[in-house]
Amino acid sequence: MAYYSDPKRASDPYALPDVEVFEVHAGWPWDECPLCTLAYLILPRPPRRASLGSSGDQPDHATHKAEHLGWYWQSCFPGCLPDSDPIGPFATEAEALADAQEGGL
Predict the structure, then answer these.
(1) pLDDT for 57-74, tens place per residue?
(2) Which of 31, 40, 80, 95 could form a disulfide with 90 if both were Cys (CB 3.0 to 4.6 A apart)?
């Protein structure tokens, strides 16, 4: 989600959000993302992992859950490549945003 590094800029009609806060998961969240399922069908198969289930390459949807790695933030403007590396992990989105805004929450 896009935010302002300085919350005071949010009311400026000419200012753009300059911080992106996002959540990262390890694994394959098949049940949450139809695009991941589509990519799985058309891209080369990943290496087999025990967490993918008993059927080999395809995960068992009933037991597979993606591992939550945390929340991150990075500087960027809408439609542009990021200006920084991702910074984190943080336990919550609010903590990541507060760090991006230098404790502004």
Answers:
(1) 554 444 445 677 889 999
(2) 95
Look-up of token digits 């068992």 = 60
Residue linked to tokens 């992106």: 20
Integer Cα distance of 74 and 64 in angstroms:
29
What is the chain's percent helix, strand, coil content, to nearest 5?
25, 25, 50
Burial environment of residue 75 by CB neighbours within 10 A (0 to 12, 13 to 18, 19 or more): middle
Domain edges within the chain? 1-27+68-105, 35-65
pLDDT at residue 42, rounded to an integer? 54
The predicted model scores a pTM of 0.60
